Amino acid sequence: MARTAAQRVGARLNPRLLVFGRLPEPGYVKTRLHPELTSEGSAVLYEAFLDDAMKLAPDGVAVELWVPDRPGAMERLGSRYPAAHVRLQSGGSLGDRLDAAFARAFGEGVDRAVALGSDHPTLPADFVVRAFDALADGAVTLGPSLDGGYYAVGLRGSAWPRARGLFAEAPWSTSGLFAWTRARAGALGLDCTELPPWYDVDRPADLARMADDLTEGSATAGAWARLAPANTGPEG
Fold this sequence. Notes:
Radius of gyration: 18 Å
Distance between the termini: 49 Å
Shape: globular
Largest sheet: 7 strands, mixed
CATH superfamily: Spore Coat Polysaccharide Biosynthesis Protein SpsA, Chain A
Order of helices and strands: HEHEHEHEHEEHHEHH
Number of helices: 9
Strand content: 15-25%
Strand order of the largest sheet: 3-2-1-4-6-5-7
Helix content: 25-40%
Number of domains: 1
Number of strands: 7
CATH architecture: Alpha-Beta Complex
């Protein structure tokens, strides 16, 4: 009998999902959702985003949560996600932090690692499976965001010596990030697989699409059902 994609991922040696997130505190996360959501509502919604992101690991894939150093972050998030390892991001650019996470993973013998953001609560789980599957033979996989960035980047351990320069001087927070990174991979001699595009939820205009795409039973669906009547306009 043919195995499912998730079974294929778990059958390979020691893959790891690196979720990049933040401590869900009012005024610290999703501030661009104001005034559609209050600071408290934004934090509640982002906590649900993070809950759903942590569930995207295919069977057999270990999960690490990488967060900036904030008071109480290790304790609160470690308690909320006991099956995951919570790691503190080092300073510097996002590229520096990605480098540190991948270096740790590959230094610990991981064969494939995928770094995943936590701003896309409706991302299909199959996209993450496809990211790991692409790394069975490929060096790099990228999941493009509709804003020109990317929601995921994956690397194969054997490609890491060449891939260490992948994020150097990347134009973070610009619409050209995905294209730049793909071109950089080519310049480093790394083949790159492109995943289907998806969208982040960063601004009030993104909330309507999110609401249409929510999966019943997800943490975000539950949080939005509680928040929408209290935090949206007079029409609800």
